[in-house]
Amino acid sequence: MTQNTENPDRMLKWGLGGALFAALCCFTPLLVFVVAGVGLSALTGWLDYALFPLLFFCLAVVAQALWLRAGRVGPNPKLWATAIAAALSILIIWIEFRFALRITVGAFVAVGVYALLITKMKSKGATQ
């Protein structure tokens, strides 16, 4: 028996959920209160070093799920989305979070544009 682990709806839900969780924890004090509440407030200075890469890699999962839902139209985004997520994570840490909000909004917009592009490619392929 083989099990198909590439369920696009499940990947999309988990990717969006992870991205929204990471964005919520990055830009609000939600996680700081939780971490301080359990007595680990010394870790709050290091949270962004984990949350921003989590955010970008969750967006890469969203791109992969969108590609799978569209019926594998165009090139597989797994490699380039992961490379971009790694590059954005390194960039944001290297510039010490100065432009974190702008880079994050840009990443969300890029995934949205990709979703529109992949939908357009799918509908164009269906009409031919």
From TrEMBL:
Positions the record marks as coiled coil are none
* Keywords from the named record: Membrane, Transmembrane, Transmembrane helix
Which Pfam families does this UniProt record tie to the protein?
Answer: Transport_MerF
Source domain of life is Bacteria
Kindly give the InterPro entries that the UniProt entry links to this protein.
Mercury_ion_transport_MerF
**Mind telling me which residue stretches traverse the membrane in this protein?**
20-43, 49-67, 79-95, 101-119
What is this protein's record name?
A: Membrane transport protein MerF
